[in-house]
Amino acid sequence: MEYQRILVVLPHPDDECFGISGTLAKHIAAGTQVTYACLTLGERARNMGNPPFANRITLPQIRRGELEQSCQAIGIQDLRLMGFHDKTLEFEDQDLLDLKIGELLAELDPSLVITFFPGFAVHPDHDATGAAVVRTIGKLQPAARPPVHCLAFSHNHRESIGEPDVFVDVSGFLKQKIASILSHRSQFYVPQLFEKNPHKNREVQERFGTERFWTYKFA
Amino acid sequence: MLPIQTVEIQNRLDSLKDQDLYIHLELTTGAYAAHNDSTKHPAANFITNALVRYGIGSISGNGPYRVGLKMDKGWIYAEGLTHYDETDAERLIMAGHDSSGKLVVALQLSREPF
Q: Are the Cβ atoms of B35 and A154 closer than 8 angstroms?
């Protein structure tokens, strides 16, 4: 299925790279416009490079640069930095969160929204982001709701929400995906990706070649 | 960030005493601690831009290091510090990183808000 415009809502720079960068690159190659609303700068991350080259003062700007590089690697046309603070989303003013997401929906009229599955995404910011997205979209008339594809990876998710229903073969877009992962150099070190032509490595293809989503079912 | 040099840190602590300072104090296991290992108990806290003032401040230990700041009516304490930002002359930026480089603890003092 081709989408005219995808809205991605995630809380941290790097949340896009492992789970959805291949899917986005694939859609973008087919002509889709992508807006990525990144709610925070991940300024409370523990990873600082190894040996550490960042600190609590410099990390926000370093991560902003890494995010811009990742978006460029994927081909994302429109990055929005939403200005919230890492680790605080579950305590934020919900009306403010919903207002900001509602403004994006009204402006962009996306044909697909991608976010985290609330309750099954491990990090409190992930869950709070997904919750805000489905809460805001849930307030729309059913016919006006774009489909929402969610990422889930908590240990208990299969018992509650079953198997994913959307599988995207991104084996043809591993170069973009690997470049997205490598952009976040303060956060990740995946040794395999530093070998020559990592996108041709079979282990890398198996680990990164398929992206999986759950379509959110509104009550 | 450079490994902590205690003489340098002690000099900076002395130069920041007896004045109003903004503090960032943080301890974290990371949000994924229990996801990665169910025997781990995830915990974290931070406080940013609280106003503090201390009369005695010192660094101790052989590394990782401890810092204690004695205030008029209480104490500020951090253990596990390993690195400081040598390029920041105005503020004292210290952090403790584990063997894989991850931040575990941070103690920062500044005359201006962070």
A: yes
